[in-house]
Amino acid sequence: MLDLAIILPTLDERENIAPLVNRIEDALGPEGWEIVIVDDDSADGTADAARNLALADSRIRVIHRIGRRGLASAAIEGMCATAAPYVAVMDADHQHDPALLRTMLEAVKSGEADVAVASRFVEGGSAAGLASARREKASGWANRIARRITGVDLTDPMSGFFLLETSRARALAPRLSGVGFKILLDILATSPERLRIREVPLQFAERRCGESKLDRAVAFEFLIGLYERTFGRVIPTRFALFGTVGALGVGVHMAILALLFRELAVAFVPSQALATFGAMTFNFWLNNWLTYRDQRLKGASAILAGWLGFCATCAVGALANVAVAGFLKGQGVFWVLAALAGIVIGAVWNYALSSRVVWGRY
Q1: 362-186-181 Cα angle (round to 5)
Q2: pLDDT tens profile 176-196
Q3: 159, 270: one domain
Q4: Is 119 within 8 Å of 200 (Cβ atoms)?
Q5: H helices of 178-267, where?
């Protein structure tokens, strides 16, 4: 009888999958569980490797996502794709110990807790597998903020290894943001009632194979997740990021213009043109790195094509900006309000068009 589903969100984890399946079987025995691998179209063929395993093992299923990325959204899709009454989410890189699954399942199944969490920071746990002291310090900082946001007294609310009833996960799924990489934080903050937690000590291990997917943008993803929980229903998170990058781009534009026109005595028109392209390049790079991190363009040809497309869409947005502002000013609207209206129209146009043309989707 199917009792537990283990959701494994994957991105370039080909060499880790088969050994992890063996470890899960050693921990849980031969039956009563299934593994749902949710792969974000890994370049290393993780989905193909998972399908090969599934051909010989009916306990393994594969969701191969095209055009969608992100650990949180992958976990949500996996949790909604199983009929098992209990569901666990864990990493596929062997940093999470499958031996804890039986204890975590018993805690939830017995009614002792609503959610069982494998914690690096509870007594008996260890964060030794974190790649650096900087990451360990950042994790502790994020945990302190997360406890304030969720109101749950938890030593490791940023843990990526947890277990709960599937029916609870499905009920919360429509309200989860799916943004960022820490789905547990989203679940705790979204639940209408305070959830009872059982923490299990986790000896956080080093990756078995491959490279960590966590880069400096992950710190921003944490902040993005907090924004989504607070303001995301009012102003879409991605548009807010796009607008923030645009505001920073104005500063870059003015700095380049001042350097060329005031300091180097270059004529105004070419200085303005170079400043415009400099700001566009900065905006494209930061949007690619942060705003569209889950759809990031990689490779010289893709980046060059994306930059050209971004410059073209922003040029059209600039024309829309000027046209709207000029029209409103001609209708007697106060010049500041007319200018602001033009800026908003241009920003919305740039966001919509670049999302489609450059990064491939709205």
Answers
A1: 60
A2: 877 655 788 888 888 888 899
A3: no
A4: yes
A5: 183-190, 217-231, 237-257
H/E element, 74: helix 71-79
Give the tokens for residue 179. Answer: 């943004």
- The shares of helix, strand and coil residues in the chain, as percent rounded to the nearest 5, are 55, 10, 30
On whether both 55 and 104 belong to a single domain, the answer is: yes
Round to whole Å and give the CA distance between 16 and 18: 6
The answer to whether residues 190 and 130 belong to one domain is yes
- With a pLDDT cut of 90, the percent of the chain lying above it is 36
Please state whether the predicted TM-score (pTM) of the whole model is above 0.90.
no
Whether 200 and 242 map to the same domain: the answer is: no
Provide the edge-to-edge strand list for the sheet that holds 4-10.
60-64, 33-39, 4-10, 86-89, 162-165, 115-119, 197-201
Are the beta carbons of 39 and 46 closer than 8 angstroms?
Answer: yes
Tell me the residue ranges of DSSP E strands in 58-107.
Answer: 60-64, 86-89
Flag whether 362 is in a domain.
no
pLDDT band at 134 (very low <50, low <70, confident <90, very high): low
Assign 33 to helix, strand or coil: strand
Q: Tokens for 101?
A: 């699954």
Report how far residue 71's alpha carbon sits from residue 61's, in angstroms, rounded to the nearest whole number. 17
| pLDDT higher than threshold 70 for residue 361 | no
Q: How far apart are CA 312 and CA 302, in angstroms?
A: 15
- Residue 36: partners with Cβ closer than 8 Å, 6 or more residues away: 5, 6, 7, 8, 61, 62, 63, 78, 81, 82
Same domain, 40 and 184: yes
b/e code 150-175 from CB counts within 10 Å (16+ = b): bebebbbbbbbbbbbbbebbeebeee
Looking at the fold, whether 226 and 325 belong to one and the same domain comes out as no
Say yes or no: 41 and 149 in one domain: yes
Read off the tokens for 14: 């080909």
Same domain? For 209 and 242 the reply is: no
Is 51 a member of any domain? yes
Helix 237-257 to helix 217-231 angle (10° resolution) is 120
Tell me which residue range forms the domain holding 287: 237-357
